[in-house]
């Protein structure tokens, strides 16, 4: 359609040129323009106008089609872009949620590990303190045993002296010495007790090889076989652990 209109436009222009040239050759340059416009046939102007109108209509229609096609493609691209954008956003949200869950679990595991570490450190610290004091405690228990033997060597009737006795009287001196040794022994026991060390005397209890050391066995009528008859040395525990076993005599079964 565009090529046909171009040919018609060219034909009209050539016709006008021929008329102008013919007029100028007969009457001169001064009368070219008026005579050209005056003698121009109406039938020659019509093809140019028609072609121009058709050309403009075709161009306008083409522009409208192009615009409509572009708008349709733009809308499609926009919808496709929006869909792809939503999919990408949902994917990012899922990745973020998974990362948050992973970090929360890591925090919980780290907190649990830290609490376990604190508990183990506390237990190890207490155990180290118990181990450090064990040797000293054993030495002190040996000293307490010696003080106990000294106290037992004093007859019971001589452990207390009458108040009217002279301070230099041997009975008064022995009674005062006994009181001093007894106070010293009790002071050492109190000091050990502050560190979780206590003594125990299993006399009359059932023999336990985990906490008792049997020195002898003897049949005793009226006593339960396998029970502790006598305790030569008391035992000691340090915070529910055995520090020293008690040395005992056991009733032998018949």
TrEMBL record:
SUPFAM superfamilies: Coiled-coil domain of nucleotide exchange factor GrpE, Head domain of nucleotide exchange factor GrpE. Keywords: Chaperone, Mitochondrion. It is found in: Mitochondrion matrix. This is GrpE protein homolog. One of its GO terms (biological process) is protein folding. Residues 54-89 are annotated as: Disordered. Residues 58-68 have a biased composition (Basic and acidic residues). It comes from Kalmanozyma brasiliensis (strain GHG001) (Yeast).
């Amino acid at each position: 359609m565009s090529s046909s209109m171009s040919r018609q436009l060219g034909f009209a222009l050539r016709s006008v040129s021929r008329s102008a040239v013919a007029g100028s050759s007969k009457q001169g340059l001064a009368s070219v323009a008026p005579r050209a416009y005056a003698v121009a046939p109406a039938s020659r102007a019509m093809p140019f106008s028609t072609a121009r109108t058709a050309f403009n209509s075709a161009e306008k229609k083409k522009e409208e089609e192009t615009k409509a096609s572009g708008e349709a493609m733009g809308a499609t691209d926009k919808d496709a872009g929006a869909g792809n954008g939503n999919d990408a956003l949902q994917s990012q949200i899922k990745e973020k949620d998974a990362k948050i869950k992973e970090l929360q679990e890591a925090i919980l595991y780290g907190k649990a590990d830290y609490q376990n570490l604190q508990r183990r450190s506390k237990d190890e610290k207490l155990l180290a303190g118990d181990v450090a004091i064990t040797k000293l405690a054993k030495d002190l228990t040996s000293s307490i045993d010696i003080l106990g033997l000294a106290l037992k060597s004093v007859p019971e009737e001589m452990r207390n002296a009458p108040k009217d006795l002279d301070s230099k009287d041997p009975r008064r001196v022995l009674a005062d010495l006994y009181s001093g040794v007894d106070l010293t022994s009790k002071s050492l026991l109190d000091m050990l007790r502050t560190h979780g060390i206590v003594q125990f005397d299993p006399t009359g209890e059932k023999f336990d090889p985990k906490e008792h050391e049997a020195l002898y066995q003897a049949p005793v009528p009226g006593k339960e076989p396998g029970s502790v008859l006598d305790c030569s040395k008391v035992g000691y525990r340090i915070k529910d652990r055995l520090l020293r076993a008690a040395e005992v005599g056991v009733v032998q079964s018949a």
